[in-house]
């Protein structure tokens, strides 16, 4: 076996858009800069009334299969990662397979299907499962489809309302991939945390400020764990660092801590020492609080250095461009970050074959995972095939009252009859309820 990784990716965004600076901020009596500068977000994607996690996931998977000229028999596994599931027993992957069987000859009766749950890290965990299945030689030459799909809606007036989003990412995991090869080495940071959860409820209970700190703590643990198997990391080893992006400001916070960690005891720390000193070490302090203060001062100074800024602009900033326009897609978010970064390299005409990505996934509750990906020969053709720009440009721009209606339309506790805002075209749509309360779907030509 040569290598295993991601052979192809397709993205499907919810077809509605909420402009955060122009529409949401004034209605919330906030400065637009809170969104554009503080959180780093310009807009959120929302599902139209006929869209949900199944339609978005099935539409992404349909395009993926058509583009790669695949038949159901070529697929041995369909896993869906989501934290927006509406059924505690029947997995979303069965609904998606049912949709795909409406448009392809044949069926997925011999494909293993499941649903993965661990908040936003479940998409990466599903890739892991597919990787292990292929590496174990149990795939009979077939590939796996992983779909990360979410409607990341928060209760109205929850602070999380600023970071909402909806969309799906479908990925084909296969041998000898066209896009990226996955590293065998992985690092984990995992702990029982109560920062973001949905105990029998549609919208999350969130301790927002704490969730930010938990993200940083688990990511740090995962990085240390990765280094145990993958060896020391140097900032110049990686062309891109796609991280889970609930909002770009979160990644801005994480990036400087990651950079501080990986430059310790390197030529970069030495080169910066004349300007900002060396990093404080715990053994240099009798008092923990003084050490923390010194570390925080060093981090603030580090953030302002040209060296750090250049690294951030080259390695992290390109991964945030789609997220700025769509908000948080939970399980899909880190996979959107990967696409954003690779898209920027393709648009710049870079020869990136063999370059590496340091990928940081995260799920509340909480677990972070770090691994490395290597860009493969076919990457440019894969990026050229994406139509994400057209999708983003054709979203319907909601005014605030329409946003309120759309939020209600997707709220299980509200009885509403909201008209659709866009006309479905060559896609799967929600088509009402079946006799056992199941959701039903139809393909619209
Ligand atoms: N100009 C510039 N910046 C401004 C500003 C202005 N006029 N007004 C505010 N800001 C800045 C703030 O300083 C802040 O930035 P810093 O944190 O760097 O200081 C930023 O804008 C946001 O402002 P607030 O902190 O006041 O915003 P908030 O109280 O509304 O809460 C939040 C922000 C906690 C992230 C909230 O949106 C939330 O709870 N989100 C959901 C939870 C979440 O996404 N957590 C992330 C980690 S958990 C995870 O990653 C899993 C997941 O996907 C959910």
From TrEMBL:
Which biological process terms from the Gene Ontology are attached to this UniProt entry? acetyl-CoA metabolic process; farnesyl diphosphate biosynthetic process, mevalonate pathway
Domain Hydroxymethylglutaryl-coenzyme A synthase C-terminal, residue spans: 195-406
Q: What class of enzyme is it?
A: transferase
Kindly give the InterPro entries that the UniProt entry links to this protein: HMG-CoA_Synthase-like, HMG_CoA_synt_C_dom, HMG_CoA_synth_N, Thiolase-like
Supply the Pfam families for this chain. HMG_CoA_synt_C, HMG_CoA_synt_N
A single GO molecular function term of this UniProt record? hydroxymethylglutaryl-CoA synthase activity
Q: Which domain of life is it from?
A: Archaea
Q: Which family does it belong to?
A: Belongs to the thiolase-like superfamily. HMG-CoA synthase family.
Q: What is this protein called?
A: Hydroxymethylglutaryl-CoA synthase
- What organism does this protein naturally occur in? Natronomonas pharaonis (strain ATCC 35678 / DSM 2160 / CIP 103997 / JCM 8858 / NBRC 14720 / NCIMB 2260 / Gabara) (Halobacterium pharaonis)
């Amino acid at each position: 076996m040569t290598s295993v990784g991601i052979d192809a990716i397709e993205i499907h965004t919810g077809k509605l858009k909420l402009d955060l600076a122009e529409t949401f901020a004034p209605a919330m009596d906030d400065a637009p800069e809170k969104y554009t500068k503080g959180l780093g977000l310009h807009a959120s994607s929302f599902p139209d009334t006929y869209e949900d996690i199944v339609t978005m996931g099935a539409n992404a998977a349909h395009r993926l299969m058509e583009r790669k000229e695949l038949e159901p028999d070529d697929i041995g596994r369909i896993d869906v990662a989501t934290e927006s599931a509406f059924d505690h027993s029947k997995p979303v992957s069965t609904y998606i397979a049912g949709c795909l069987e409406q448009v392809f000859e044949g069926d997925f009766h011999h494909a293993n299907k499941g649903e993965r749950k661990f908040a936003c890290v479940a998409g990466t965990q599903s890739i892991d499962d597919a990787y292990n299945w292929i590496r174990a030689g149990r795939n009979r030459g077939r590939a796996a489809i992983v779909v990360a799909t979410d409607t990341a809606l928060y209760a109205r007036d929850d602070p999380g309302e600023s970071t909402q989003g909806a969309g799906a990412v479908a990925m084909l995991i296969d041998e000898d991939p066209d896009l990226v090869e996955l590293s065998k080495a992985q690092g984990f940071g995992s702990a029982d945390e109560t920062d973001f959860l949905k105990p029998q409820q549609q919208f999350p209970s969130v301790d927002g400020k704490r969730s930010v700190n938990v993200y940083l703590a688990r990511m740090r643990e995962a990085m240390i764990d990765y280094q145990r198997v993958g060896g020391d990391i140097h900032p110049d080893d990686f062309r891109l660092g796609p991280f889970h992006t609930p909002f770009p400001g979160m990644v801005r916070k994480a990036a400087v801590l990651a950079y501080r960690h990986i430059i310790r005891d390197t030529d970069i720390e030495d080169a910066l020492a004349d300007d900002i000193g060396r990093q404080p070490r715990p053994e240099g302090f009798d008092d923990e609080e003084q050490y923390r203060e010194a570390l925080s001062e060093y981090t603030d100074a580090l953030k302002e250095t040209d060296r750090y800024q250049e690294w951030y602009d080259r390695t992290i900033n390109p991964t945030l461009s789609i997220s700025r326009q769509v908000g948080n897609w939970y399980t899909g978010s880190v996979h959107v970050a990967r696409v954003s970064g690779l898209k920027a390299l393709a648009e710049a005409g870079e020869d990136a074959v063999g370059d590496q990505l340091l990928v940081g996934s995260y799920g509340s509750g909480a677990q972070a995972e770090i691994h490395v990906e290597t860009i493969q020969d076919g990457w440019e053709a894969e990026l050229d095939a994406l139509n994400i720009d057209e999708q983003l440009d054709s979203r319907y721009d909601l005014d605030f009252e329409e946003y309120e209606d759309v939020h209600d339309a997707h709220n299980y506790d509200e009885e509403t009859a909201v008209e659709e805002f866009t006309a479905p075209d060559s896609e799967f749509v929600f088509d009402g309820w079946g006799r056992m309360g199941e959701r039903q779907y139809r393909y619209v030509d």
